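Exercise 7.
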Amino acid sequence: MRESILTIPISEIMEESCGCPICKMRDMLEQRTVEYIMGAAMMEPDVRIETNKLGFCSEHFAMMKACKNRLSLALMLQTHLQTLNEEIFSGKKLFESKNAKKKKLSEVNTSCFVCSKVDWGMERLLKTFFECYRDESFKKQLREQKYICLPHYDMLMEQAPNYLKKEELELFLSDIKKLAGEYAKVLYDDVSHYCSMYDYRNTGADADWGTSRDSIERAIKFLTSREEM
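Solution. The predicted structure, written as tokens, is:
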């Protein structure tokens, strides 16, 4: 496959078959966005205007809180709360419609600065991902992935018809169904084995847990695309 500045991130992700490749794309975008806003971007007026307006979801607040620079987070919270006080909790402004504050409240409760940037980036990465699928070596890489998680299996099925021709689409859907379906069966076996190990007949120092010990965590990640919190 001929590489370009657009395909390099995809190629690097596909080289490692250690999980869902779409999860890895999203994780890369999330990490880069969080590092960006927790760094010098914190002082950029246009970025602060957006973070004040959109806020953050609980998952991305947790990622930001895990960063070392708590002052950056505190400063963003300060101006975000200031914006909320002015736009939602202040008295009704002249010419402001009756439901304006309720609309702003609903918007801020369903918006997130990081999510918006990740969605923007994922749209472009997926376009490149489907373009790469036309290459035989890329098809082989995809089939060698460990699995596709359930949410991203759903997303790929929905997006694929927008990018692939009929013949390509049928093959692609078959490939991702196999990746998701076979891993679901593996998880079922591992979770079932984990449950069986609590039977008194399977206790003892020589009890064989096989690959089941982390089956709960792996199943949750497959079903939600997220690590257990």
